[in-house]
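Sample A.
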Amino acid sequence: MATDDTIRTGKQAQEDTWIAQIEAGIHEGMSFTRATTPEDIEKIVKQAENTSIMMFRIPRATVETGMIGGFDQATFLCHLATRGVIRKVILAFDGWADDPRELWEIPCVNNFCRGLLGPPGSDQCRAVQATLIDEVREAFDDDGNLVNRSAFQIVGSLGLVSMAYPERIYERNPESSTGMLKDIGKAIEIRMQMWEGPKSTPSA
């Protein structure tokens, strides 16, 4: 916390302000949760009963531990899945707003996401994805019409898989305002592969 009267500006300051507003309960139906200890789980389960979206803050220091940090965080999501917290969680990677790179371009973010997902087809992989919001479900109506393009800007199940395997989904596009292209079809395909796991090869 600043000890003088300086007003912080910039992307990170804006992100911190938005997060503080959510933590203060200003944005109805949303909660920002710090999942750091097993004791948090009961509180989170109770919050989920009355909350449509739950955002989990992942501190930069945790992300920088890579796959180990991801596996650690997966423990909480797996517990939540067993308690019925399904399709409610969004991940927020804290502390990167002033970094000129996109999250998918940062190696420790890629490794963290791989650790969070765990091995393809594993109980961990399915449980973690089950707790996260499905961006495709949020973006399209029952008739397949795109009604919420901004759903692809959040980090739910599809975003997690995309950042874990960015070389198969993203590429730089200097003409784009976001500086990237995202192959949604490929992301969906990879997510399904992660859910189902590797196919067994029939023996000769």
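Sample B, a different protein:
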Amino acid sequence: MKRTYLFGILPAIIGILIFILWYVTKHEFFILSGMLFLYVGLASISVGIISSFIQLIKHKEIKTFFIGLSINLINLPIAFFLASTAISIITAYTIQFENKSSFQISNILLNGPSVKASVKSLEIGQLTKSSLHFKGDGKLTLTYVNNGISTTKTIEGYVTGGMGGHSKVVFYNTGANILHNASVL
């Protein structure tokens, strides 16, 4: 029965470890490893479930059978959660705002395909970020008020759902500087 438990516990532990390593490093190797491990984990779970049935037939222990089956089947919601979380992170467009001006920045509005996000105000020296999930194709614009002057700028000329990406907007006294594909914390 230990083999049944092992086939159920290892995929969850390894899958969570791959996800954590990817989340911390954002290295593509871990995306590929995670995708590959979904298949390896599914095979491992299948062996664990078959092993549970074999143990049931051999030893007629229903309680042990259900424990082994449960340990193996719990991997399915874990794998779904990890995969859907990774997809959500990968497909999000993240924008970091930093105020290096001498004024409070107010009424920050992001407008993209089927999505709007706003930041009421950004104090002097403050950092914040927004993540967007586009539902279509179009342009991503930024509108803000700096020292009483309203300004609209284009962050990206074209974005589409599932595209992902990141930019950094730095506000100065003279306006905003948009850094594309900037490292966003």
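Observation for Sample B: The chain has a mean pLDDT of 90.
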